[in-house]
Amino acid sequence: MRLYFVGGIHGSGKTTLCRNLAAKLRAPHHSAGELIRLGGESQEVRDKTVRDVKKNQTLLLSALNDLRNAGTATVILDGHYTVVDSTGAICPVEIEVFHALNPSSLVLVDSEPELVVKRLRERDNRDYSLTFVEHHAREEKAHAETISRTLQIPLLLLSAYATADALASQLVSPNAIHYGVS
Fold first, then answer.
1. Which positions of the chain have pLDDT values less than 50?
2. N or C: which end of the chain has fewer CB within 10 A?
3. What class of enzyme is it (predicted)?
């Protein structure tokens, strides 16, 4: 199965981009959260924090294996390189999880922190500090780069304004994708 993993912090625009990409590539799009909920009791609580990061990742991998076993050829998966635990700490998703996901490409959707704060306020009716969002975005990018380098999986850094057409052309042209982001 060809898996395109599109990551970014909450509110970065990854789900909108993935929906458009799914239509362009005629491939199913799933959010990691959706697959986790299908696999069992999600450990994510209402405020987007995760009680049990490891359990969530186990549920994700199980649900993804079900898709593989069903013969799904291509999947666009949107999720995170880091999650916020119930204490408010930013936790990197273990590299072993990405190894098990076995993505063909990694994408990081990078948005201006001010835009993310605005989107989260409008969408979730919740205020996040600009400082926290900036810190989370830096951690997300750093961990995406680490995963890319460690597993030698192509990583593409996109702005939140990127189009599905632009992403699709990058994904089907490996020469345009590089390992790690400078």
1. 43, 45, 176-182
2. C
3. transferase
